[in-house]
Amino acid sequence: MINSILEDMEGVSVAITSIGLDGEKIDQVTLMEKPRIFVKSGTTVATAYGTLKEWEASYEILMETGIRTSIGEVVICKVKEHGNALIAGPSIISEMEYVVSLLESQNPEKVFVDGAFFRHGFARISEATVLVIGSNYHQNIDIVVEDAKAIVNKFSIKRPLFDVEFLENRDQICLFNDSQNFQEFNSKSILGMTEKIFSDENKKYRFLYVSNSLPNELIEYMVSNRLKLEGIIVETPMNIQLSDLNMKRLSKLVKNVYTLKPMNLVAVCYNPYSPKGYRFNDQQFKDSLEQSIGMRVFNVRKEECDE
To answer: Distance of CA 136 to CAs 97, 271, 282, Å?
Structure first.
């Protein structure tokens, strides 16, 4: 995926880093061959020092970041000559935010952060997100498409149209009707707070604000006690940490789900090939995804996006 994007950036100065490890010859999970990351001269890269011994591209280290990983400190490099590279950035969101700021200090036109399916949380620090749907999730195409729809729905949550500025930078759980009528709890976490939140004296409130994770516990408590809310507001869509079942329940229990920090999902791509040895029919996969999520999707190895 990252190679396809970089190929389209001809003549554009770019900077890249990765959440975890990318560009290895053999995938550490599937033990199958992977495409290397090909970096061009002039590209700025943030990567752990230990990866540099695997580079086929020549480089110059511009600065150290002070961020430590299991394979060395993350450093900022400038590619001097084209070649393949192994890239490993930080795995903590605050550290990635800092690394991105250092990359931006080199004045690239575009900064790209590569990531994997279980690292959705990092999408919140990006100005735009490209989501790739893989067939590897399950051999049943319908299950893959259903999961893709749930992810796209989460990534597409909007900011409410009514005033929520009073919630900005607030890190405690709140119940409210408006900025003049709310109650703040002395907790950042929903865990262990459900009974207090839904006590009789709090039934007058229509909205719940969660600055931290929105967990299964809340939805299961609402189901057990037949409770509903007009709205839940999360800081970012990535705060929603629910099982597939509870994601379905959420839409029945809560009229609207909003976020203070919407994501900009600019494209959805797909890969019909699984490293487990099977593949989906390309056209069927494409058509099923588009029908389900209501967006055009792209096989990045075959198509070009003109939008």
So the answer is: 29, 9, 14
The CA–CA distances, whole Å, from 89 to 94, 101, 114, 298 equal 12, 13, 9, 27
Edge-first strand listing for the sheet containing 58-69: 58-69, 72-81, 44-48, 14-18, 110-114
Rounded to whole angstroms, what are the CA distances from 259 to 83, 97, 165, 179, 264? 41, 20, 12, 16, 12
Q: Crossing angle for the helix pair 244-253 and 216-224, nearest 10 degrees?
A: 50
Which residue has 């599937």 as its token pair? 30
* Cα gap 109→152, rounded to integer Å: 27
Q: What tokens appear for 7 in the block?
A: 């190929």
Q: Which two tokens stand for residue 13?
A: 């100065």
Q: What's the mean pLDDT in 77-106?
A: 92
DSSP code of residue 255:
E
* Whole-number Cα distances in Å, 229 to 124, 164, 203, 216, 238: 25, 17, 9, 16, 20
Domains and CATH numbers, the chain: 2-155+263-298 (3.40.50), 165-259 (3.40.140)
CA distance 56 to 242: 42
Q: What is the pLDDT of residues 41-81, one digit of tens each?
A: 999 999 999 999 999 999 999 999 999 999 999 999 999 99
| Helices H / strands E in the chain, number of each | 7, 17
What is the DSSP-derived secondary structure letter of residue 246? H
Quote the CA–CA distance of 222 and 228 in Å, as a whole number: 7
* Measured CA distances, 134 to 40, 41, 70, 116, 242 (Å): 27, 31, 28, 11, 20
3-class state of residue 27 by DSSP: coil
Q: Give the span between the Cα atoms of 191 and 216, in whole angstroms.
A: 9
pTM: 0.71
